[in-house]
Design a protein that fits this description.
- This protein is mainly β and 223 residues long.
- It is built from 2 helices and 14 strands.
- The strands form 2 sheets. Strands 1, 2, 3, 5, 9, 11, 13 and 14 form an 8-stranded mixed sheet that branches. Strands 4, 6, 7, 8, 10 and 12 form a 6-stranded antiparallel sheet that branches.
Length: 223
């Protein structure tokens, strides 16, 4: 099985350091097709692994082309509310490919801050990218899961950002194969110039205290 990273997103995630990786191992079975003309969007519902690692750095799905055509896709993450995708929190640029072998496609997000306890859906979609040539991808499945269920949307090319996906309940016992990498929010580190200013301020304050101490001592000396 090959592994690739979506080039358009890789640079955005080079600084991200994942602390927790959720993995759904590929079991050599699949669901499909994903793409033009059906099904437009396949996704995996999930939450953050805990209340500390709340930044989604990357996620992946495992795919294989079922036709000779090029597949045109983008990746996204949205809130999952009432059996459908709500507000988008991440959308990638489009990417294309024909995957003759099973391929793990890794998408770097650049670091998306998520809310613990909120359900989200991470998805690949062909929405808005239909070009008149039918194509299709098989999407790998997993027996084991650290996530909350595979879902899909038969929207005939329309946006997945709506409630009531067609597969919202039927396949929650299945999982898409792939992984998700999470890390804690970055702590702000003072810039060198700020540290220098802080140090200068502390030195000035110390000098002022010494001067005041000397003046007080002189004021109390006997005449």
């Amino acid at each position: 099985m090959k592994t690739i990273a979506a080039l358009i997103l890789a640079l955005a995630s080079v600084c991200a350091q994942a602390s927790v990786v959720l993995t759904n191992p590929f079991n050599n079975t699949a669901v499909g097709p994903l793409g033009e003309s059906d099904t437009t969007t396949y996704g995996q519902v999930f939450t953050t692994p805990d209340a500390v690692n709340t930044v989604l750095d990357s996620f992946s799905l495992i795919v294989r082309s079922s036709t000779a055509a090029i597949s045109n896709l983008y990746a996204g993450v949205a809130t999952w509310v009432n059996g459908g995708a709500g507000t988008a929190v991440f959308t990638s640029a489009p990417f294309s490919g024909n995957f003759a072998d099973w391929t793990e496609v890794i998408v770097g997000t650049g670091g998306v801050d998520l809310t613990p306890g909120q359900e989200y859906v991470a998805f690949f979609s062909a929405s808005g990218l239909f070009d008149g040539t039918p194509d299709g991808l098989d999407v790998g499945l997993s027996d084991d899961s650290e996530t909350l269920g595979f879902v899909f949307d038969n929207s005939a090319g329309a946006s997945p950002l709506h409630a009531n996906w067609d597969g919202r309940d039927a396949f929650r016992s299945f999982q898409l194969a792939g992984s998700m990498e999470f890390s804690p929010p970055l702590q702000e580190v003072p810039e060198p110039a700020s540290l220098a200013l802080l140090g200068a301020g502390l030195l000035a304050a110390a000098a002022a205290r010494r001067r005041r101490g000397t003046a007080d001592a002189r004021a109390t000396e006997p005449a």
